[in-house]
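The records we work with from here on pair a chain with its fold. These numbers are not coordinates but entries in a learned vocabulary of local backbone shapes. To see the layout at work, look at the sequence and tokens printed below:
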Amino acid sequence: MYYEYFGLNQPPFRITPDTNLFFPGANRGAILEALIYAVGNGEGIVKVVGEVGSGKTMLCRMLEQELPERVEVVYIANPSLAPENILHVIAFELKLQVSPNTSRLEVMHALQEFLLARHAENRQVVVFVEEAQGMPIATLEEIRLLSNLETRQNKLLQIVLFGQPELDEKLARAEIRQLKERITYSFQLAPFNPIDIRDYLNSRVRACGYRAVELFSPGAVQSIANYSHGLVRRINIVADKSLLAAYADSSIQVSKAHVVKAARDSEFTTARRRWWLPAMLAGGALVVFVALAMFWWQGRPMPDEPAAAEPAPGITAPESVPAVEAPMFQLEESVSVATVVEPEPSPPAADASGSADTPPVTPSPEPVVNTPVVQDTAPAPAEAAALPDDDPVLTPEGAAVQPPEPIPLFQLQDGTDSTLSATELALLQAQVFAQPPEETPAPTPGAADPPCEICWGIVYRPLADPESL
């Protein structure tokens, strides 16, 4: 009706596949070349998957047309066949002398003889299965057994499966995994994008005789892309009705309004969802969330300083701990050397009249000999912390023990002076302390001072006048 109005010599958008109007764009031409190569090499099973109306039938017709003459094609359009019938259908397409009552074994034998004869003539046989997603599992398994017909070097029968995405779901089952392993080439027919749709429309109308400016406006192309979802069959339906709407409006170009009318008439009222719109919204929400989290973290108050640990019950911690010099003769925690100081004699008791029987005794000015006493056990840390620094330590006999005064010089047993430093003396004592010392009885109060003895090899005898040295 509108062909002469637009200068067309045939309808450009029929849904029936027409190989003269084949569009090699949108990767269709590359897939066709790959199919020709796969069939020519004769390797395994080939699979072509595409959505409904994506152009699988057109590709199948083009493959049949482009294959060389030495390849004989068996086309199966109805895949809903039982396993025992698939061999009869292939034999019938190859015009073998079999009947419906012929057994499966006889049909298989006749088919193998035919394929061997074709191979001897350097010819190939290929089976095209349309709508393979509708083929039963048992029938697909029978197809796999047909692929076992081979010589030592070549396959006798090639199989190409054309199906919808449900075919991939069926091949993913465990019971048919053997057939999936035999598939050597797999192709996917993707939908057209808006640029491919524009090229497809222009290619079709110019192949049918159109010679003027672009027949479809950019808005019309975008609208067709939204309503057709990029599927070839929908593109043909909407484009054909859009030309009719433009002809009714006496317009020389198809506009977006014409496409909308055509889509409503075809009940394609739901436009394609723009996948990038939800992605942009989700991305914007994520950016806002991250910004709010960073703002909250920067305004968050810093944690307070940790409080000082409280002392254990019964122990009073001093405000400031002064530096305490370790005893010169402290070598281990369990061994400490101290100097015994004789307590001063207490004054005699007075009688009832208030007079003393004897006059007070004045202590001798002679120096007191300090004898080292080994204290086997040092006080516990908690007990030591509770004692004041200036209080003396009492021995079991009640004698007061004071820390030893630093002794600058010492006299050995042979009467010679020693100028050993405190560090050298500590090292010498550490060597002697390795041997367990003999216990020395504590002096009896009131008794005479014991003579100087060798304490672990060294006599601690202060000189009468250290300053004269």
Notes: The chain has three domains: 3-10+193-265, 27-189, 329-340+369-440+451-469. The mean pLDDT is 74. The longest strand covers residues 183-189.
